[in-house]
Specification:
homodimer, alpha/beta, seven-stranded parallel β-sheet, 13 helices, globular
Protein backbone atom coordinates (compact mmCIF):
# COMPACT_ATOMS: atom_id res chain seq x y z
CA UNK A 1 0.00 0.00 0.00
CA UNK A 2 2.78 2.44 0.89
CA UNK A 3 4.44 1.64 -2.44
CA UNK A 4 1.21 2.53 -4.24
CA UNK A 5 0.97 5.86 -2.39
CA UNK A 6 4.61 6.67 -3.17
CA UNK A 7 3.87 5.75 -6.75
CA UNK A 8 0.78 7.85 -7.40
CA UNK A 9 1.62 11.03 -5.48
CA UNK A 10 5.31 11.26 -6.36
CA UNK A 11 4.80 10.43 -10.04
CA UNK A 12 2.04 13.05 -10.27
CA UNK A 13 4.35 15.67 -8.81
CA UNK A 14 7.15 14.66 -11.18
CA UNK A 15 4.74 14.99 -14.07
CA UNK A 16 3.78 18.45 -12.83
CA UNK A 17 7.48 19.33 -13.19
CA UNK A 18 8.21 19.77 -9.47
CA UNK A 19 11.99 19.62 -9.23
CA UNK A 20 12.23 18.42 -5.65
CA UNK A 21 9.94 15.50 -6.55
CA UNK A 22 12.28 14.75 -9.48
CA UNK A 23 15.30 14.80 -7.18
CA UNK A 24 13.56 12.64 -4.60
CA UNK A 25 12.41 10.00 -7.05
CA UNK A 26 15.91 9.75 -8.57
CA UNK A 27 17.32 9.23 -5.07
CA UNK A 28 14.76 6.50 -4.42
CA UNK A 29 15.66 4.87 -7.73
CA UNK A 30 19.34 4.93 -6.71
CA UNK A 31 18.53 3.24 -3.40
CA UNK A 32 16.63 0.56 -5.31
CA UNK A 33 14.46 -2.05 -3.65
CA UNK A 34 10.90 -3.22 -4.27
CA UNK A 35 9.14 -0.12 -2.81
CA UNK A 36 10.12 2.21 -5.61
CA UNK A 37 9.41 -0.18 -8.49
CA UNK A 38 5.70 0.67 -8.97
CA UNK A 39 6.60 4.37 -9.27
CA UNK A 40 9.38 3.65 -11.77
CA UNK A 41 7.10 1.33 -13.73
CA UNK A 42 4.54 4.13 -14.00
CA UNK A 43 7.27 6.60 -15.02
CA UNK A 44 8.44 4.25 -17.76
CA UNK A 45 4.98 3.99 -19.31
CA UNK A 46 4.57 7.79 -19.36
CA UNK A 47 8.04 8.56 -20.73
CA UNK A 48 9.31 8.49 -24.31
CA UNK A 49 9.20 12.08 -25.58
CA UNK A 50 12.64 13.48 -24.75
CA UNK A 51 15.66 13.39 -27.03
CA UNK A 52 18.36 11.49 -25.13
CA UNK A 53 21.96 12.30 -26.04
CA UNK A 54 24.77 10.09 -24.73
CA UNK A 55 28.14 11.83 -24.40
CA UNK A 56 31.24 9.84 -23.63
CA UNK A 57 35.01 10.14 -23.87
CA UNK A 58 38.11 9.25 -21.88
CA UNK A 59 39.13 11.34 -18.83
CA UNK A 60 40.35 14.79 -19.84
CA UNK A 61 38.58 14.85 -23.20
CA UNK A 62 36.46 17.81 -22.18
CA UNK A 63 33.03 16.16 -21.99
CA UNK A 64 31.64 18.22 -19.14
CA UNK A 65 32.68 21.55 -20.62
CA UNK A 66 31.08 20.51 -23.90
CA UNK A 67 27.83 19.50 -22.17
CA UNK A 68 27.80 22.92 -20.52
CA UNK A 69 28.20 24.69 -23.87
CA UNK A 70 25.54 22.55 -25.56
CA UNK A 71 23.15 23.13 -22.69
CA UNK A 72 23.44 26.89 -23.20
CA UNK A 73 22.54 26.48 -26.86
CA UNK A 74 19.63 24.14 -26.19
CA UNK A 75 18.24 26.65 -23.66
CA UNK A 76 18.52 29.36 -26.29
CA UNK A 77 16.35 27.17 -28.53
CA UNK A 78 13.69 27.15 -25.83
CA UNK A 79 14.33 23.65 -24.54
CA UNK A 80 14.52 22.49 -20.96
CA UNK A 81 17.66 20.42 -20.39
CA UNK A 82 18.33 17.51 -18.04
CA UNK A 83 21.88 16.32 -17.37
CA UNK A 84 22.76 12.98 -15.81
CA UNK A 85 26.49 12.63 -15.17
CA UNK A 86 27.76 9.19 -14.25
CA UNK A 87 30.55 9.85 -11.87
CA UNK A 88 33.30 7.30 -11.41
CA UNK A 89 35.19 9.43 -8.93
CA UNK A 90 34.92 7.51 -5.77
CA UNK A 91 33.83 3.88 -5.69
CA UNK A 92 34.82 3.59 -2.03
CA UNK A 93 34.22 7.03 -0.59
CA UNK A 94 30.89 7.31 -2.35
CA UNK A 95 31.37 10.97 -3.24
CA UNK A 96 30.09 12.36 -6.51
CA UNK A 97 32.02 15.56 -6.86
CA UNK A 98 33.98 15.88 -10.06
CA UNK A 99 35.83 19.14 -10.42
CA UNK A 100 34.21 19.56 -13.82
CA UNK A 101 30.78 19.62 -12.26
CA UNK A 102 31.65 22.82 -10.47
CA UNK A 103 32.24 24.60 -13.77
CA UNK A 104 28.60 24.02 -14.63
CA UNK A 105 27.38 25.61 -11.43
CA UNK A 106 26.43 28.81 -13.27
CA UNK A 107 23.48 26.80 -14.54
CA UNK A 108 22.73 25.10 -11.24
CA UNK A 109 20.14 27.74 -10.29
CA UNK A 110 18.39 27.91 -13.65
CA UNK A 111 15.00 26.14 -13.28
CA UNK A 112 15.15 25.10 -16.94
CA UNK A 113 18.20 22.92 -16.18
CA UNK A 114 18.38 19.90 -13.92
CA UNK A 115 21.86 18.50 -13.19
CA UNK A 116 22.40 15.25 -11.36
CA UNK A 117 25.63 13.41 -10.64
CA UNK A 118 25.17 9.72 -10.01
CA UNK A 119 28.02 7.88 -8.30
CA UNK A 120 28.91 4.42 -9.53
CA UNK A 121 29.46 3.50 -5.88
CA UNK A 122 27.80 0.25 -4.90
CA UNK A 123 25.99 0.09 -8.21
CA UNK A 124 27.41 -3.14 -9.66
CA UNK A 125 25.13 -3.96 -12.52
CA UNK A 126 22.47 -1.60 -11.26
CA UNK A 127 24.01 1.58 -12.64
CA UNK A 128 22.72 1.07 -16.18
CA UNK A 129 19.06 0.66 -15.33
CA UNK A 130 19.14 3.30 -12.58
CA UNK A 131 20.57 5.80 -15.07
CA UNK A 132 17.86 4.98 -17.58
CA UNK A 133 15.22 5.34 -14.85
CA UNK A 134 16.62 8.79 -14.07
CA UNK A 135 16.41 9.69 -17.77
CA UNK A 136 12.74 8.68 -17.84
CA UNK A 137 12.01 10.68 -14.68
CA UNK A 138 13.45 13.81 -16.33
CA UNK A 139 11.53 12.98 -19.50
CA UNK A 140 8.20 12.75 -17.64
CA UNK A 141 9.06 15.99 -15.80
CA UNK A 142 9.15 17.78 -19.16
CA UNK A 143 12.84 18.05 -19.98
CA UNK A 144 13.03 17.90 -23.77
CA UNK A 145 16.77 17.30 -24.15
CA UNK A 146 18.56 14.96 -21.79
CA UNK A 147 22.34 14.54 -21.75
CA UNK A 148 23.79 11.38 -20.26
CA UNK A 149 27.49 11.93 -19.68
CA UNK A 150 29.74 8.97 -18.88
CA UNK A 151 33.47 8.40 -18.76
CA UNK A 152 34.24 6.04 -21.61
CA UNK A 153 36.03 3.51 -19.46
CA UNK A 154 34.33 0.40 -18.23
CA UNK A 155 31.76 -1.58 -20.14
CA UNK A 156 28.68 -0.36 -18.34
CA UNK A 157 29.63 3.28 -18.89
CA UNK A 158 30.10 2.68 -22.62
CA UNK A 159 26.83 0.78 -22.94
CA UNK A 160 24.94 3.53 -21.14
CA UNK A 161 26.26 6.15 -23.57
CA UNK A 162 25.15 3.90 -26.41
CA UNK A 163 21.64 3.45 -25.00
CA UNK A 164 20.67 6.93 -26.23
CA UNK A 165 19.01 8.25 -29.37
CA UNK A 166 22.20 10.05 -30.33
CA UNK A 167 25.66 9.06 -29.10
CA UNK A 168 28.55 11.54 -29.16
CA UNK A 169 32.13 10.45 -28.54
CA UNK A 170 34.52 13.24 -27.54
CA UNK A 171 38.22 13.03 -28.41
CA UNK A 172 40.88 15.53 -27.50
CA UNK A 173 44.42 16.15 -28.69
CA UNK A 174 47.40 15.44 -26.49
CA UNK A 175 46.27 12.58 -24.29
CA UNK A 176 48.69 9.88 -23.14
CA UNK A 177 49.20 6.40 -24.58
CA UNK A 178 46.98 4.64 -22.10
CA UNK A 179 44.07 7.03 -22.69
CA UNK A 180 44.53 6.79 -26.47
CA UNK A 181 44.25 3.01 -26.24
CA UNK A 182 41.08 3.32 -24.18
CA UNK A 183 39.65 5.71 -26.73
CA UNK A 184 39.94 3.09 -29.48
CA UNK A 185 37.21 1.06 -27.81
CA UNK A 186 34.77 3.95 -27.95
CA UNK A 187 34.97 4.92 -31.59
CA UNK A 188 32.46 2.40 -32.90
CA UNK A 189 29.54 3.62 -30.84
CA UNK A 190 29.58 7.22 -32.10
CA UNK A 191 26.88 8.76 -34.27
CA UNK A 192 28.82 12.02 -34.05
CA UNK A 193 32.48 12.47 -33.21
CA UNK A 194 33.64 15.62 -31.52
CA UNK A 195 37.28 16.62 -31.41
CA UNK A 196 37.43 19.13 -28.59
CA UNK A 197 40.12 21.70 -27.76
CA UNK A 198 40.46 22.65 -31.43
CA UNK A 199 42.14 25.88 -30.37
CA UNK A 200 45.21 23.69 -29.83
CA UNK A 201 47.68 23.33 -32.68
CA UNK A 202 47.79 19.52 -32.46
CA UNK A 203 44.00 19.18 -32.91
CA UNK A 204 44.25 18.87 -36.70
CA UNK A 205 46.31 15.74 -36.28
CA UNK A 206 43.63 14.26 -33.97
CA UNK A 207 40.93 15.02 -36.57
CA UNK A 208 42.97 13.47 -39.39
CA UNK A 209 43.72 10.34 -37.33
CA UNK A 210 40.05 9.99 -36.46
CA UNK A 211 38.88 10.40 -40.06
CA UNK A 212 41.39 7.76 -41.15
CA UNK A 213 40.14 5.31 -38.53
CA UNK A 214 36.55 5.96 -39.62
CA UNK A 215 37.47 5.24 -43.25
CA UNK A 216 38.75 1.89 -42.07
CA UNK A 217 35.12 1.13 -41.28
CA UNK A 218 35.29 1.28 -37.50
CA UNK A 219 32.02 3.15 -37.19
CA UNK A 220 29.76 0.86 -39.14
CA UNK A 221 26.69 -0.22 -37.18
CA UNK A 222 24.56 -1.36 -40.10
CA UNK A 223 22.62 1.87 -40.50
CA UNK A 224 23.25 4.30 -43.34
CA UNK A 225 23.82 7.35 -41.14
CA UNK A 226 27.10 8.92 -42.25
CA UNK A 227 29.06 9.44 -39.04
CA UNK A 228 30.13 13.07 -38.73
CA UNK A 229 33.28 14.54 -37.23
CA UNK A 230 32.93 18.02 -35.71
CA UNK A 231 35.84 20.00 -34.30
CA UNK A 232 34.96 22.29 -31.41
CA UNK A 233 36.64 24.71 -29.06
CA UNK A 234 34.91 25.70 -25.87
CA UNK A 235 37.51 28.42 -25.36
CA UNK A 236 37.13 29.99 -28.81
CA UNK A 237 33.41 29.06 -28.99
CA UNK A 238 33.89 27.47 -32.41
CA UNK A 239 32.18 24.43 -33.90
CA UNK A 240 29.41 24.42 -31.32
CA UNK A 241 26.64 25.62 -33.65
CA UNK A 242 27.74 23.03 -36.22
CA UNK A 243 27.56 20.39 -33.49
CA UNK A 244 24.01 21.39 -32.54
CA UNK A 245 23.06 21.15 -36.22
CA UNK A 246 24.60 17.68 -36.49
CA UNK A 247 22.72 16.59 -33.37
CA UNK A 248 19.43 17.86 -34.82
CA UNK A 249 20.16 16.12 -38.15
CA UNK A 250 20.73 12.84 -36.33
CA UNK A 251 17.61 13.32 -34.25
CA UNK A 252 15.55 13.79 -37.40
CA UNK A 253 17.25 10.78 -39.00
CA UNK A 254 16.38 8.52 -36.06
CA UNK A 255 12.80 9.81 -35.82
CA UNK A 256 11.91 9.73 -39.51
CA UNK A 257 13.72 6.76 -40.98
CA UNK A 258 13.22 3.03 -40.49
CA UNK A 259 16.77 2.94 -39.10
CA UNK A 260 15.43 4.50 -35.91
CA UNK A 261 13.52 1.28 -35.24
CA UNK A 262 16.43 -1.11 -34.56
CA UNK A 263 18.02 1.55 -32.33
CA UNK A 264 14.90 1.72 -30.17
CA UNK A 265 14.72 -2.05 -30.11
CA UNK A 266 18.34 -2.38 -28.98
CA UNK A 267 17.75 0.18 -26.21
CA UNK A 268 14.60 -1.62 -24.98
CA UNK A 269 16.38 -4.97 -25.02
CA UNK A 270 19.36 -3.54 -23.10
CA UNK A 271 16.96 -2.02 -20.58
CA UNK A 272 15.07 -5.27 -20.02
CA UNK A 273 18.25 -7.33 -19.75
CA UNK A 274 19.90 -4.96 -17.28
CA UNK A 275 16.77 -4.72 -15.12
CA UNK A 276 16.42 -8.51 -15.00
CA UNK A 277 20.14 -9.05 -14.30
CA UNK A 278 20.01 -6.54 -11.48
CA UNK A 279 16.92 -8.16 -9.96
CA UNK A 280 18.68 -11.51 -10.13
CA UNK A 281 21.90 -10.19 -8.58
CA UNK A 282 19.96 -8.46 -5.80
CA UNK A 283 18.19 -11.71 -4.95
CA UNK A 284 21.51 -13.53 -4.99
CA UNK A 285 23.11 -10.88 -2.74
CA UNK A 286 20.30 -11.23 -0.19
CA UNK A 287 20.72 -14.98 -0.24
CA UNK A 288 24.54 -14.84 -0.09
CA UNK A 289 24.39 -12.51 2.91
CA UNK A 290 22.46 -15.17 4.83
CA UNK A 291 25.16 -17.83 4.19
CA UNK A 292 27.41 -18.70 7.10
CA UNK A 293 31.17 -18.52 6.59
CA UNK A 294 31.68 -22.27 6.17
CA UNK A 295 31.94 -22.11 2.36
CA UNK A 296 34.56 -19.38 2.56
CA UNK A 297 36.56 -21.34 5.12
CA UNK A 298 36.65 -24.44 2.93
CA UNK A 299 37.72 -22.29 0.00
CA UNK A 300 40.50 -20.60 1.98
CA UNK A 301 41.91 -23.98 2.96
CA UNK A 302 41.68 -25.03 -0.73
CA UNK A 303 39.58 -28.06 0.30
CA UNK A 304 37.11 -27.20 -2.44
CA UNK A 305 37.04 -24.88 -5.46
CA UNK A 306 34.91 -21.85 -6.36
CA UNK A 307 33.15 -23.64 -9.25
CA UNK A 308 31.84 -26.59 -7.23
CA UNK A 309 30.86 -24.33 -4.36
CA UNK A 310 29.12 -21.76 -6.59
CA UNK A 311 27.13 -24.48 -8.35
CA UNK A 312 26.13 -25.98 -4.99
CA UNK A 313 25.16 -22.53 -3.72
CA UNK A 314 22.86 -21.92 -6.68
CA UNK A 315 21.27 -25.38 -6.35
CA UNK A 316 20.15 -24.62 -2.82
CA UNK A 317 17.96 -21.65 -3.71
CA UNK A 318 15.73 -20.94 -6.67
CA UNK A 319 16.23 -17.14 -6.56
CA UNK A 320 12.81 -16.86 -8.15
CA UNK A 321 11.03 -15.06 -5.36
CA UNK A 322 12.02 -11.87 -3.63
CA UNK B 1 34.66 -37.23 -20.49
CA UNK B 2 36.48 -34.72 -22.72
CA UNK B 3 36.38 -32.25 -19.86
CA UNK B 4 38.10 -34.82 -17.63
CA UNK B 5 40.82 -35.39 -20.23
CA UNK B 6 41.34 -31.64 -20.66
CA UNK B 7 41.50 -31.37 -16.92
CA UNK B 8 44.08 -34.05 -16.14
CA UNK B 9 46.50 -33.62 -19.04
CA UNK B 10 46.48 -29.83 -19.25
CA UNK B 11 46.70 -29.32 -15.50
CA UNK B 12 49.62 -31.76 -15.32
CA UNK B 13 51.45 -29.84 -18.03
CA UNK B 14 50.76 -26.53 -16.28
CA UNK B 15 52.14 -28.00 -13.08
CA UNK B 16 55.25 -29.08 -14.97
CA UNK B 17 55.70 -25.41 -15.87
CA UNK B 18 55.07 -25.75 -19.61
CA UNK B 19 54.38 -22.20 -20.75
CA UNK B 20 52.26 -23.07 -23.79
CA UNK B 21 49.99 -25.15 -21.52
CA UNK B 22 49.75 -22.12 -19.21
CA UNK B 23 48.81 -19.88 -22.14
CA UNK B 24 46.27 -22.39 -23.44
CA UNK B 25 44.53 -22.91 -20.11
CA UNK B 26 44.27 -19.15 -19.55
CA UNK B 27 42.66 -18.81 -22.99
CA UNK B 28 40.20 -21.58 -22.15
CA UNK B 29 39.40 -19.85 -18.86
CA UNK B 30 38.72 -16.61 -20.77
CA UNK B 31 36.34 -18.41 -23.13
CA UNK B 32 34.54 -19.83 -20.11
CA UNK B 33 31.87 -22.49 -20.31
CA UNK B 34 31.38 -25.78 -18.46
CA UNK B 35 34.16 -27.74 -20.26
CA UNK B 36 37.01 -25.88 -18.60
CA UNK B 37 35.57 -25.86 -15.08
CA UNK B 38 36.98 -29.22 -13.90
CA UNK B 39 40.49 -28.09 -14.93
CA UNK B 40 40.10 -24.76 -13.14
CA UNK B 41 38.68 -26.48 -10.08
CA UNK B 42 41.76 -28.73 -9.97
CA UNK B 43 44.03 -25.70 -10.44
CA UNK B 44 42.37 -23.92 -7.55
CA UNK B 45 42.98 -26.79 -5.15
CA UNK B 46 46.66 -26.98 -6.09
CA UNK B 47 47.33 -23.23 -5.95
CA UNK B 48 48.06 -21.01 -2.98
CA UNK B 49 51.82 -20.59 -2.80
CA UNK B 50 52.50 -17.46 -4.87
CA UNK B 51 52.62 -13.93 -3.52
CA UNK B 52 49.97 -11.98 -5.44
CA UNK B 53 50.52 -8.23 -5.77
CA UNK B 54 47.71 -6.03 -7.08
CA UNK B 55 48.87 -2.81 -8.74
CA UNK B 56 46.38 -0.13 -9.70
CA UNK B 57 46.25 3.55 -10.53
CA UNK B 58 44.50 5.90 -12.93
CA UNK B 59 45.55 6.10 -16.60
CA UNK B 60 48.96 7.71 -16.98
CA UNK B 61 50.12 7.00 -13.44
CA UNK B 62 52.96 4.81 -14.69
CA UNK B 63 51.75 1.40 -13.48
CA UNK B 64 53.17 -0.66 -16.33
CA UNK B 65 56.61 0.92 -16.21
CA UNK B 66 56.69 0.27 -12.48
CA UNK B 67 55.66 -3.37 -12.93
CA UNK B 68 58.51 -3.72 -15.44
CA UNK B 69 61.03 -2.30 -12.97
CA UNK B 70 59.75 -4.44 -10.09
CA UNK B 71 59.85 -7.53 -12.29
CA UNK B 72 63.56 -6.94 -12.98
CA UNK B 73 64.26 -6.75 -9.24
CA UNK B 74 62.20 -9.85 -8.42
CA UNK B 75 64.10 -11.78 -11.12
CA UNK B 76 67.36 -10.63 -9.55
CA UNK B 77 66.13 -12.19 -6.28
CA UNK B 78 65.74 -15.50 -8.09
CA UNK B 79 61.96 -15.41 -8.43
CA UNK B 80 59.88 -16.32 -11.45
CA UNK B 81 57.35 -13.57 -12.19
CA UNK B 82 53.87 -13.74 -13.70
CA UNK B 83 52.10 -10.59 -14.89
CA UNK B 84 48.38 -10.34 -15.60
CA UNK B 85 47.41 -6.97 -17.05
CA UNK B 86 43.71 -6.20 -17.23
CA UNK B 87 43.37 -4.15 -20.34
CA UNK B 88 40.46 -1.81 -20.77
CA UNK B 89 41.60 -0.61 -24.16
CA UNK B 90 38.97 -1.88 -26.43
CA UNK B 91 35.63 -3.18 -25.18
CA UNK B 92 34.26 -3.30 -28.72
CA UNK B 93 37.25 -4.12 -30.89
CA UNK B 94 38.44 -6.74 -28.44
CA UNK B 95 42.09 -5.81 -28.83
CA UNK B 96 44.42 -5.99 -25.87
CA UNK B 97 47.33 -3.90 -27.00
CA UNK B 98 48.23 -1.10 -24.67
CA UNK B 99 51.23 0.92 -25.76
CA UNK B 100 52.74 0.35 -22.33
CA UNK B 101 52.80 -3.37 -22.89
CA UNK B 102 55.31 -2.90 -25.68
CA UNK B 103 57.80 -1.33 -23.29
CA UNK B 104 57.92 -4.59 -21.42
CA UNK B 105 58.78 -6.60 -24.50
CA UNK B 106 62.43 -6.82 -23.46
CA UNK B 107 61.20 -9.38 -20.94
CA UNK B 108 58.82 -11.12 -23.31
CA UNK B 109 61.40 -13.74 -24.25
CA UNK B 110 62.66 -14.45 -20.76
CA UNK B 111 61.29 -17.87 -19.71
CA UNK B 112 61.26 -16.74 -16.07
CA UNK B 113 58.57 -14.15 -16.93
CA UNK B 114 55.06 -14.76 -18.19
CA UNK B 115 53.09 -11.70 -19.36
CA UNK B 116 49.43 -11.87 -20.25
CA UNK B 117 47.07 -9.05 -21.23
CA UNK B 118 43.42 -9.83 -20.64
CA UNK B 119 40.88 -7.68 -22.42
CA UNK B 120 37.77 -6.67 -20.53
CA UNK B 121 35.87 -7.26 -23.77
CA UNK B 122 32.69 -9.26 -23.29
CA UNK B 123 33.63 -10.04 -19.74
CA UNK B 124 30.76 -8.41 -17.84
CA UNK B 125 31.02 -9.84 -14.36
CA UNK B 126 33.29 -12.61 -15.53
CA UNK B 127 36.49 -10.60 -15.56
CA UNK B 128 37.09 -10.86 -11.82
CA UNK B 129 36.94 -14.61 -11.55
CA UNK B 130 38.75 -15.19 -14.85
CA UNK B 131 41.61 -13.01 -13.63
CA UNK B 132 41.83 -14.91 -10.38
CA UNK B 133 41.79 -18.21 -12.32
CA UNK B 134 44.71 -16.92 -14.40
CA UNK B 135 46.57 -16.03 -11.19
CA UNK B 136 46.07 -19.56 -9.88
CA UNK B 137 47.25 -21.07 -13.17
CA UNK B 138 50.49 -19.07 -12.92
CA UNK B 139 50.78 -20.03 -9.26
CA UNK B 140 50.49 -23.77 -10.05
CA UNK B 141 53.00 -23.32 -12.90
CA UNK B 142 55.58 -22.20 -10.34
CA UNK B 143 55.58 -18.40 -10.62
CA UNK B 144 56.42 -17.16 -7.14
CA UNK B 145 55.49 -13.50 -7.59
CA UNK B 146 52.38 -12.57 -9.57
CA UNK B 147 51.51 -8.99 -10.47
CA UNK B 148 47.90 -8.17 -11.31
CA UNK B 149 47.80 -4.76 -12.94
CA UNK B 150 44.48 -2.99 -13.42
CA UNK B 151 43.44 0.52 -14.33
CA UNK B 152 41.82 1.96 -11.24
CA UNK B 153 38.61 2.94 -12.97
CA UNK B 154 35.53 0.82 -12.78
CA UNK B 155 34.46 -1.18 -9.77
CA UNK B 156 35.55 -4.59 -10.97
CA UNK B 157 39.05 -3.35 -11.73
CA UNK B 158 39.40 -1.86 -8.25
CA UNK B 159 38.08 -4.99 -6.57
CA UNK B 160 40.48 -7.19 -8.52
CA UNK B 161 43.45 -5.10 -7.40
CA UNK B 162 42.19 -5.45 -3.84
CA UNK B 163 41.84 -9.24 -4.09
CA UNK B 164 45.61 -9.65 -3.72
CA UNK B 165 47.91 -10.29 -0.77
CA UNK B 166 49.49 -6.87 -1.22
CA UNK B 167 47.79 -3.96 -2.97
CA UNK B 168 49.80 -1.07 -4.38
CA UNK B 169 48.14 2.13 -5.57
CA UNK B 170 50.25 4.26 -7.91
CA UNK B 171 49.80 8.04 -8.02
CA UNK B 172 51.64 10.44 -10.28
CA UNK B 173 52.09 14.21 -10.26
CA UNK B 174 50.45 16.40 -12.87
CA UNK B 175 47.28 14.56 -13.79
CA UNK B 176 44.08 16.41 -14.72
CA UNK B 177 41.06 17.15 -12.53
CA UNK B 178 39.01 14.22 -13.75
CA UNK B 179 41.82 11.73 -13.11
CA UNK B 180 42.52 13.23 -9.68
CA UNK B 181 38.87 12.73 -8.74
CA UNK B 182 39.03 9.12 -9.88
CA UNK B 183 42.18 8.61 -7.84
CA UNK B 184 40.36 9.54 -4.63
CA UNK B 185 38.32 6.36 -4.86
CA UNK B 186 41.42 4.20 -4.92
CA UNK B 187 43.28 5.48 -1.92
CA UNK B 188 41.55 3.32 0.67
CA UNK B 189 42.54 -0.01 -0.80
CA UNK B 190 46.32 0.56 -0.69
CA UNK B 191 48.70 -1.34 1.55
CA UNK B 192 51.51 0.59 -0.08
CA UNK B 193 51.26 3.90 -1.94
CA UNK B 194 53.69 4.66 -4.71
CA UNK B 195 54.16 8.18 -6.03
CA UNK B 196 55.80 7.63 -9.40
CA UNK B 197 57.69 10.08 -11.60
CA UNK B 198 59.53 11.51 -8.57
CA UNK B 199 62.13 12.97 -10.93
CA UNK B 200 59.50 15.68 -11.58
CA UNK B 201 59.59 18.83 -9.49
CA UNK B 202 55.87 18.68 -8.63
CA UNK B 203 56.15 15.16 -7.15
CA UNK B 204 56.82 16.47 -3.63
CA UNK B 205 53.44 18.17 -3.65
CA UNK B 206 51.78 14.88 -4.66
CA UNK B 207 53.53 13.07 -1.78
CA UNK B 208 52.52 15.76 0.73
CA UNK B 209 48.90 15.73 -0.46
CA UNK B 210 48.79 11.96 -0.21
CA UNK B 211 50.29 11.88 3.29
CA UNK B 212 47.73 14.47 4.41
CA UNK B 213 44.86 12.39 3.04
CA UNK B 214 46.23 9.31 4.79
CA UNK B 215 46.39 11.22 8.08
CA UNK B 216 42.69 11.91 7.65
CA UNK B 217 42.24 8.18 8.08
CA UNK B 218 41.34 7.26 4.52
CA UNK B 219 43.45 4.13 4.53
CA UNK B 220 42.10 2.40 7.59
CA UNK B 221 40.90 -1.14 6.88
CA UNK B 222 40.86 -2.39 10.43
CA UNK B 223 44.31 -3.97 10.37
CA UNK B 224 47.28 -2.46 12.13
CA UNK B 225 49.57 -2.40 9.10
CA UNK B 226 50.93 1.14 8.81
CA UNK B 227 50.33 2.13 5.20
CA UNK B 228 53.59 3.24 3.58
CA UNK B 229 54.21 5.91 0.96
CA UNK B 230 57.18 5.30 -1.35
CA UNK B 231 58.33 7.78 -3.97
CA UNK B 232 59.86 6.22 -7.08
CA UNK B 233 61.36 7.28 -10.37
CA UNK B 234 61.69 4.76 -13.15
CA UNK B 235 63.83 7.25 -15.07
CA UNK B 236 66.27 7.93 -12.24
CA UNK B 237 65.89 4.39 -10.85
CA UNK B 238 65.23 5.73 -7.35
CA UNK B 239 62.93 4.38 -4.66
CA UNK B 240 62.59 0.99 -6.33
CA UNK B 241 64.70 -0.96 -3.82
CA UNK B 242 62.77 0.72 -1.00
CA UNK B 243 59.54 -0.36 -2.69
CA UNK B 244 60.69 -3.98 -2.95
CA UNK B 245 61.55 -3.85 0.77
CA UNK B 246 58.11 -2.46 1.62
CA UNK B 247 56.48 -5.22 -0.45
CA UNK B 248 58.50 -7.88 1.38
CA UNK B 249 57.62 -6.32 4.75
CA UNK B 250 53.93 -6.44 3.86
CA UNK B 251 54.23 -10.00 2.63
CA UNK B 252 55.76 -11.06 5.93
CA UNK B 253 53.09 -9.12 7.82
CA UNK B 254 50.25 -10.89 6.00
CA UNK B 255 51.89 -14.32 6.35
CA UNK B 256 52.90 -14.12 10.00
CA UNK B 257 50.22 -12.11 11.74
CA UNK B 258 46.58 -12.90 12.48
CA UNK B 259 45.68 -9.91 10.29
CA UNK B 260 46.49 -12.05 7.26
CA UNK B 261 43.48 -14.21 8.07
CA UNK B 262 40.64 -11.71 7.39
CA UNK B 263 42.39 -10.71 4.15
CA UNK B 264 42.40 -14.31 2.91
CA UNK B 265 38.78 -14.68 4.01
CA UNK B 266 37.73 -11.55 2.11
CA UNK B 267 39.52 -12.78 -1.02
CA UNK B 268 37.88 -16.23 -0.82
CA UNK B 269 34.45 -14.68 -0.27
CA UNK B 270 34.93 -12.31 -3.22
CA UNK B 271 36.03 -15.26 -5.36
CA UNK B 272 33.01 -17.38 -4.45
CA UNK B 273 30.57 -14.52 -4.93
CA UNK B 274 31.97 -13.53 -8.33
CA UNK B 275 32.03 -17.14 -9.56
CA UNK B 276 28.42 -17.69 -8.49
CA UNK B 277 27.26 -14.36 -9.96
CA UNK B 278 28.93 -15.17 -13.24
CA UNK B 279 27.35 -18.64 -13.37
CA UNK B 280 23.98 -17.07 -12.69
CA UNK B 281 24.44 -14.37 -15.34
CA UNK B 282 25.59 -16.95 -17.90
CA UNK B 283 22.48 -19.03 -17.28
CA UNK B 284 20.34 -15.94 -17.60
CA UNK B 285 22.10 -14.91 -20.85
CA UNK B 286 21.44 -18.37 -22.35
CA UNK B 287 17.81 -18.13 -21.34
CA UNK B 288 17.43 -14.51 -22.52
CA UNK B 289 18.89 -15.41 -25.92
CA UNK B 290 16.07 -17.94 -26.41
CA UNK B 291 13.37 -15.30 -25.76
CA UNK B 292 11.47 -14.05 -28.80
CA UNK B 293 11.33 -10.30 -29.37
CA UNK B 294 7.78 -9.85 -28.05
CA UNK B 295 8.91 -8.49 -24.66
CA UNK B 296 11.14 -5.92 -26.30
CA UNK B 297 8.34 -4.83 -28.64
CA UNK B 298 5.92 -4.25 -25.77
CA UNK B 299 8.62 -2.29 -23.96
CA UNK B 300 9.37 -0.12 -27.00
CA UNK B 301 5.69 0.79 -27.31
CA UNK B 302 5.68 1.56 -23.52
CA UNK B 303 2.78 -0.88 -23.07
CA UNK B 304 4.63 -2.40 -20.15
CA UNK B 305 7.66 -1.50 -18.02
CA UNK B 306 11.07 -3.13 -17.48
CA UNK B 307 10.32 -4.05 -13.85
CA UNK B 308 7.14 -6.03 -14.53
CA UNK B 309 8.69 -7.70 -17.55
CA UNK B 310 11.94 -8.59 -15.77
CA UNK B 311 10.05 -10.11 -12.84
CA UNK B 312 7.85 -12.10 -15.25
CA UNK B 313 10.94 -13.24 -17.14
CA UNK B 314 12.59 -14.55 -13.97
CA UNK B 315 9.39 -16.32 -12.86
CA UNK B 316 9.34 -18.40 -16.03
CA UNK B 317 12.70 -20.09 -15.49
CA UNK B 318 14.43 -21.33 -12.37
CA UNK B 319 17.99 -20.70 -13.70
CA UNK B 320 19.09 -23.49 -11.40
CA UNK B 321 20.32 -25.94 -14.00
CA UNK B 322 22.78 -25.34 -16.79
Amino acid sequence: VSARILSSSLVARVQAGQLHAVARLISRAEQGGPEVRPALAEIYRRAGRAHVIGITGVPGSGKSTLVGKLTGRMLACGRRVGIIAIDPSSPYSGGAILGDRIRMSEMAHDPRVFIRSMATHGATGGMAHTTLDAVDILDVAGFETIFVETVGVGQDEVHIAKAAHTTIVVSAPGLGDELQAMKAGLLEIADIHVVSKCDRSDANRTITDLEQMLMLGMASDGSNWAVEVVGTSSVAETGLDELVEAIERHRAYVARTPQGQPRGQAIAEFRLRKTAENLLLQRFADYFAREDGSSTGKLMRRESDPYSMAAALLERETLQNQ
